[in-house]
Amino acid sequence: MAYHCRVRIVLPDPKGAGRKSIEVDPAQRPTRVQSLEEAGDVFLEWDQAIDDDGHLRRCLCCAGPLYRRKAFPQVTGFVIVLAFALSLVGILGFADNIGLLVVMTIVLLMDISILLFARTYLDCYRCGSSHRKLTIASYHRSWDRATANRNRAAHTDGS
After folding, report:
1. What whole-number distance in Å separates Cα of residue 148 and Cα of residue 22?
2. Which residue, of 27, 39, 112, 121, has the greatest Cβ tally within 10 A?
3. What average pLDDT does the chain have?
C-alpha cells in the first residue's frame, strides 16, 4: 500500500469559516467518517479513487482530479525577504564584514533546507480538499489553469 498509516484530508468549510480535517485508514476504506473538529459526517467516494499500485488517483470527497502542491512553512516568506535584503547588501558591496557573510550563509542554508523539507500534498481541483500523509504517484502534475477552469465550470454547472 502506498500510504504511511493514515491519510489526512483537510476540507474547506463551505461557509468559509476555516477548514476541517479528517483522518482515514485507506486499508479499511470507510465510506463515512467524522471530522476531527466537529460532529459532521464526511462521505468518501472510494470508487476509482485508488490505482492498481495503491496511489490516490481521484479526490476521496468529490472524485475530482488532483494536482501536486508543495506546502512551505510560514517562515518561508520571512526567509525570502531576509535573503533578498542580504543579497542586496552583498551586491552593493557592504558585505566585507565576516559576521555578515556568516549570517548570509546561515540564511542560505535555511532557504535550501526549506526547499528540501517542504512537504508535497495532493489538492483537488473541484472541491479544494487537500490529501496529506501519502505517497504521490508520478503522474500527478502541478496546478494547471486550463484544468482548473474546466473543473470549476463543471462543478458550478452541477455536472
Report:
1. 24
2. 121
3. 78
pTM for this model (two decimals): 0.65
List pLDDT tens digits, range 19-78. 777 788 777 888 888 766 665 677 888 888 888 887 888 888 888 888 888 888 788 888
CA distance 114 to 119: 10
Of 101, 138, 140, nearest to 122 by C-alpha is: 140
34 touches 46 (CB < 8 A): no
Instruction: Report residue 54 as a C-alpha cell.
Output: 495503491
Per DSSP (E only), the strands in the chain are 3-12, 19-24, 32-34, 41-43, 66-71, 119-124, 130-134
Q: Domains of the chain: which residue ranges?
A: 3-70+119-156, 76-117
Q: How far apart are CA 122 and CA 134, in angstroms?
A: 9
Backbone φ and ψ for 71, nearest 5 degrees, come out as: -105, 120
Cα–Cα distance list, 45 to 29, 58, 60 (Å): 9, 9, 5
Is residue 135 within 8 Å of residue 55, measured between CB atoms? yes
The answer to whether 14 touches 40, Cβ cutoff 8 Å, is no
Q: How far apart are CA 66 and CA 35, in angstroms?
A: 21
